[in-house]
Design a protein that fits this description.
heterodimer; A: about 170 residues; alpha+beta; Arc Repressor Mutant, subunit A; Glutaredoxin; 5 strands; B: about 800 residues; alpha/beta; Ubiquitin-like (UB roll); Alpha-Beta Plaits; Rossmann fold; 5 domains; seven-stranded mixed beta sheet; six-stranded mixed beta sheet; about 30% helix
């Protein structure tokens, strides 16, 4: 089945190589309850779950496409659109909120020109407000991918954006 | 049994019952929204909350909690009523409350419960839902603003229909029911979701704003399409059938219907129905009177054996039997047949030889009681969708194993752990013989088999059918054949199912006998969950066989009748409801026969292609306008009575035959009930039945089997040619015969013929979806739209046969496999 390629890419989606999904499915195909690990696996590989991949997973695992969509929309961890290389999360939980997280969020909006749960057109950034990052002592807190930035200020937002603008996309 | 107390009443209930079921069987009604007895318990709506004393008076859902010994349950304390009221208030909070324009009004569980619990105000406030309404398909409207998220639609689509079109999307307050990626609904449109929807979120679009629910009268009837024999309730207003109404108590199928049964009723009140007799004058069919038309016909029927008749197995038993009596006694001819002859051969020749009976000994009810199902061709789902539901439920809920021998994959192949052996088209009989051979070789034969007549001959005749030899010509491997043989033979109960019909020429007497051999050799017949079930095509196909409406004692069969029309020995042909020009193989020959015959009389609902060639056309009644009985494929004899009054200018076939008998000097019975008395007295299995006893419930006509082995003949394998594709014909899911062309529902979803081909053939021939292709065989050529699908193997193409506009019989002359070329 590895010679199967996506029959049609939608406008946003470039041609997608299904052999990557094939490898992931191959790992779990014989395990009962394999839908979650397969979906997590393909998201890991593609960065999100493209529709053709979801349909392909449905076909290979013999699960209804609708059911897969139900799972993908139920869990916040799955993404149906391409995501940025740098995922910026700003905490708006109680501790961060009282420390002025709102202004941090607004500054990011201004600098990146994207809103909550949006991705910049060049696929550099995805911005998300999150409820708690579990480090209230460092409030207000932001994360870029796995790096943590505590004691955020408007000034620091500038520095972070400048820093990540420099980094290569590929 | 467990003993418990419900509302201070001492009751008993089966051990497996939930509190809801225990209450229900003891006459105590607990309100429900999300529960359906056909589906697994879900517990989503919280309407069925009850108090159980042992659970410290907590409120628990009755539909998911098992009833246990000594439980003390209260179903309607003030606290419970308060809780239910709040559930309703919360459900109504975002609901649009547009009952005045909602077609569900009057039949709506939410409305009824709101009324019952007197919820006349709401303590909460919130915005109404603002979901987009899905008007994208012609049959099912989805208005998620009215949805209460009971999940019944998604569950029935999974648990019974096994299509899985609908699911819960998102979560929390955003949750809604929808399709993958929020696509518009595009499914098989059986409408099961509509039938169980407790509110107006899912509605039948053809019925939209047609009538209020309470303004219709409800008439029970039997579906007039396939042989399953589903019961339907027709909603009638102003003498028009406006819709089908779901009744969960109805029939073995508990009210489940397929797309044809639910949405194909429009032919009954079609504006295209013939309204007056037509007589050909100066070459033109012109309106006439019954007296004139019948006098002409009666005059022609005096021709004795130069008269022949073809009838549709959609007529009632009474009509077919009276027609036969008329032909034999008043006309004096033995030349009559139905369903192109071969479509009933599996019963009248195959089963007759193998089981000594012209009917299946197994019934549809055996499907869920079996351990192992062997289905010949995945088309069994398309030809008999409600039987398909039974297979789905058997496999998914009862853990019944399913193996399929088919020339293509299909919906049944997708069931959990279903094994589909996709063989070369036309090799099924050889394969079945090789399975029998394997069973013999591996000593898996049942002890009873050796005593059955013909055992030694069978053993000898099977010698050439080793799994290895057949594997090669069928494109399978020998190990798979042997595995299937041992699975079948080693199952305690095993049932074989195969569809027959005018498009399935390969499903003939030889196939039926090969299947019967398998059942007899392993002793799997005549017991619960065992046997061979022939799915016959039309609603009364089995009845036509039971009435003996096929050639016997030297009468001509369909093919011979058409030949005799051409060579002039048959001068008058009476076609009752058949449309051979579209549905019989080899259109050129049928056309030549109808052209050649001196006098053609057609009784029909519509001016079909065949009727248009007639000298006299007699307008007749649909099943909704007449009284009589239909016999389903598993010999359930069911009574139908008129749901609407027929228009004054049309007659039932029964009235026509009666009138003709009188004109021919005979004495017809006064009414169908009297004809049925005669049938009951003379037809094996029908004894003791009468219209009165059948009115309430249908009855099974028992089948007595006398097994005998039929030794297989040597078979010539189907040859293939390079550059040619193997065309197999069949039925499309949405259609039945040619009648469904007059049902708007089926025509909305499947309006025209097509040719289905595999992805690899499509790319080899550079054909894209919906491309118009020229399909040519040795007998002709025609244009069909391409449909590319995953289920077709390379080198095999499929085309359905129902369509007058694209009659497949112009390239198909009746062979099970036709070699064709395909050009874009």
């Amino acid at each position: 089945m590895s010679d199967v390629v996506a029959q049609q890419g939608t406008e946003q989606e470039p041609e997608i190589d299904l052999s990557i999904a094939d490898a992931v499915i191959g790992k779990y195909i014989d395990i009962p309850g394999n839908l979650m690990p397969v979906l997590q696996g393909v998201q890991e590989e593609y960065g999100y779950v493209p529709r053709v991949v979801a349909d392909y997973v449905a076909e290979r695992l013999n699960v209804y496409p609708s059911q897969i969509y139900g799972v993908l929309t139920f869990y916040a961890q799955f993404h149906l659109k391409p995501r940025g290389k740098f995922i910026i999360r700003v905490c708006v939980g109680t501790a961060c909120h009282v420390q002025g997280a709102t202004r941090i969020v607004e500054t990011f909006f201004d600098k990146l020109h994207i809103g909550h749960a949006e991705t910049s057109p060049d696929l550099r950034y995805t911005f998300e407000k999150v409820a708690c990052l579990g480090a209230c002592g460092m409030a207000p807190l932001a994360m870029v991918n796995d790096s943590t930035y505590g004691g955020m200020t408007v000034q620091k937002v500038d520095e972070i954006v400048a820093d990540y603008n420099q980094r290569p996309l590929k | 049994m467990v003993n418990l107390t419900i509302d201070d009443k001492q009751v008993t209930a089966p051990k497996t019952a939930t509190i809801y079921e225990a209450a229900k069987i003891n006459g105590i009604n607990i309100p429900i929204l999300c529960h359906d007895k056909k589906l697994k318990p879900f517990g989503a709506c919280r309407m069925c909350l009850v108090e159980v004393e042992q659970m410290k008076g907590r409120q628990i859902p009755a539909c998911t909690t098992p009833a246990t010994e000594g439980m003390i349950i209260r179903t309607s304390t003030p606290d419970i009523i308060k809780a239910r009221k709040m559930v309703l208030e919360l459900l109504l909070l975002n609901h649009p409350l547009d009952c005045p324009v909602c077609d569900k009004s009057g039949d709506c569980d939410l409305q009824n419960l709101t009324y019952e619990y007197k919820v006349n105000s709401n303590r909460f406030t919130d915005e109404k839902f603002n979901h987009e309404i899905d008007y994208n398909n012609p049959l099912i409207e989805r208005d998620m603003n009215r949805c209460v998220l009971c999940g019944k639609c998604a569950r029935i689509c999974d648990e019974i229909v096994s299509f899985g079109a609908l699911t819960f999307i998102d979560r929390g307050i955003d949750t809604k029911i929808g399709c993958e990626f929020d696509d518009p609904l595009n499914c098989e449109f059986c409408g099961s979701c509509i039938s169980v929807c407790p509110v107006g979120a899912l509605l039948a679009r053809p019925f939209k704003h047609k009538a209020r629910f309470w303004a219709m009268t409800k008439h029970t009837s039997v579906c007039g399409y396939c042989g399953t024999g589903c019961n339907v309730t027709l909603g009638v207003k102003d003498n028009k059938v406006l819709t089908t109404i779901y009744d969960e108590e109805q029939g073995f199928h508990k009210g489940q219907l397929c797309v044809r049964g639910r949405f194909g009723y429009q032919f009954i009140n079609s504006a295209q129905r013939l309204s007056k007799p037509l007589v050909r004058k100066n070459g033109v069919l012109s309106e006439s009177t019954w007296d004139e038309a019948l006098e002409i016909v009666a005059g022609r029927l005096k021709g004795g054996s130069n008269v022949a008749a073809l009838a549709t197995p959609r007529l009632t038993n009474e009509e077919l039997s009276l027609f036969k009596t008329m032909l034999l006694e008043n006309v004096g001819t033995k030349n009559f047949d139905h369903a192109a002859g071969y479509a009933h051969a599996a019963l009248t020749e195959g089963f007759a030889r193998s089981f000594g009976a012209t009917a299946s000994s197994a019934s549809i009810l055996d499907i869920q009681k079996s351990d192992f199902l062997l289905v010949i061709k995945t088309d069994a789902y398309e030809t008999h969708p409600v039987v398909g539901f039974e297979i789905n439920m058997a496999v998914k809920n009862k853990g019944v194993k399913l193996s399929i021998l088919s020339d293509k994959r299909g919906k049944l192949s997708k069931l959990p752990d279903a094994k589909t052996l996709v063989h070369r088209p036309g090799s099924e009989i050889a394969l079945l013989n090789s399975i029998a051979k394997t069973i013999l070789d591996e000593k898996m034969v049942d002890a009873s088999a050796a005593a059955v007549a013909g055992y030694a001959e069978l053993e000898k005749a099977l010698s050439g059918f080793s799994a290895e030899a057949i594997a090669e010509q069928s494109g399978l491997n020998a190990a798979d054949i042997k595995k299937l043989a041992s699975e079948y033979a080693s199952s305690e109960k095993a049932l074989i199912i195969f569809p027959t019909g005018q498009a399935y020429t390969g499903h003939n007497a030889v196939l039926a006998s090969a299947l019967a051999n398998l059942a007899i050799i392993t002793g799997k017949y005549g017991k619960e969950g065992c046997g061979v079930l022939c799915l016959s095509e039309k609603n009364n196909s089995q009845g036509a066989v039971d009435m003996g409406f096929y050639p016997q004692d030297g009468g001509l069969n369909s093919v011979q009748i058409l030949d005799a029309c051409i060579n002039g020995t048959v001068k008058t042909l009476f076609v009752a409801g058949e449309n051979p020009l579209v549905s019989y193989p080899d259109r050129n020959k049928v056309k030549a026969a109808l052209d050649a015959v001196e006098f053609l009389v057609v009784s029909e609902l519509f001016l079909t292609e065949t009727a248009a060639m007639a000298d006299v056309v007699l307008p007749v009644c649909s099943y909704a306008e007449k009284e009589g009985t239909f016999t389903s494929t598993d010999r359930r004899v069911q009574f139908i009575k008129p749901a609407i009054r027929k228009s004054v200018q049309i007659k039932t076939d029964f009235e026509i035959f009666s009138d003709l008998i009188t004109r021919l000097g005979g004495q017809p019975p006064l009414r169908p009930a009297l004809q049925f008395e005669e049938i009951a007295a003379n037809t094996p299995g029908y004894l003791g039945m009468n219209h009165v006893s059948l009115q309430k419930n249908g009855a099974f006509a028992p089948v007595i089997t006398i097994p005998a082995f039929v030794a297989p003949q040597a078979l010539t394998p189907v040859v293939s040619e390079t550059g040619k594709l193997a065309l197999v014909t069949g039925s499309a899911l949405y259609h039945s015969g040619t009648l469904s062309q007059y049902g708007e529902g089926p025509m909305h979803v499947c309006p025209e013929g097509y040719i289905e081909l595999s992805r690899s053939d499509a790319s080899a021939y550079k054909i894209a979806e919906n491309d118009l292709c020229t399909v040519s065989s040795a007998t002709g050529s025609m244009q069909l739209k391409a449909k590319i699908s995953l289920r077709m193997p390379a080198g095999v193409v499929f085309a359905p046969y129902h369509f007058s506009a694209t009659p497949i019989n112009s390239i198909w002359s009746g062979a099970p496999v036709t070699l064709v070329t395909l050009v874009k």
